[in-house]
Amino acid sequence: MNLLKKISVSLIFLVSLPAFADSFCTGKVTKLGVGRHGVVYVSGPGGLPVVYLCNLQGKSNGIETESCKAMYSSLLAAKAQNKTVSITFNPSIGSCSELGSWRYAQNVNWVISE
Q1: 3-class SS at 96?
Q2: In the CATH hierarchy, which fold is given to the domain comprising 21-113?
Q3: Which pLDDT value is given to residue 14?
Q4: Three-state SS string across 28-88, please?
Q5: Three-state DSSP class for 22?
Q6: Are the CB atoms for 7 and 23 separated by under 8 Å?
Q7: Cβ neighbours of residue 65 under 8 Å, at least 6 residues apart?
Q8: Which regions in the chain score pLDDT beneath 70?
């Protein structure tokens, strides 16, 4: 009986897994910058328009300052080396290109260098 419960819980988790999956915006960084007040912006991966991610000077958009610095560093290295990156969103978004230009991209989850 204990094994049956474990299998049932595992199956429920696997069936519901897509609901927890991130949306990936993957590709090359075409634009990357920092505003005078520390706002980081990026465009390119997966058709992202220019969107704000976070702020290097304080918590913003739900992202801590240290995390923002690490995200910016990853994006800067990827751009300099012409590498592909993925910026993920959770909960998932409909399309990378649908995000509002020159606005904070809500629900940023990961920046992944590939």
Answers
A1: helix
A2: OB fold (Dihydrolipoamide Acetyltransferase, E2P) (2.40.50)
A3: 41
A4: ECCEEEECCCCEEEEECHHHCCCEEEEECCCCECCECHHHHHHHHHHHHHHHHCCCEEEEE
A5: coil
A6: no
A7: 55, 56, 57, 58, 59
A8: 1-20
Distance CA 35, CA 6 (A): 51
Burial status of residue 37 (CB atoms within 10 A of its CB: 0-12, 13-18, 19 or more): exposed
The domain ranges of the chain are: 21-113
Query: What is the Cα–Cα distance from 106 to 92, expressed in whole angstroms?
Result: 10
pTM of the model: 0.81
- Token pair for residue 17? 């897994």
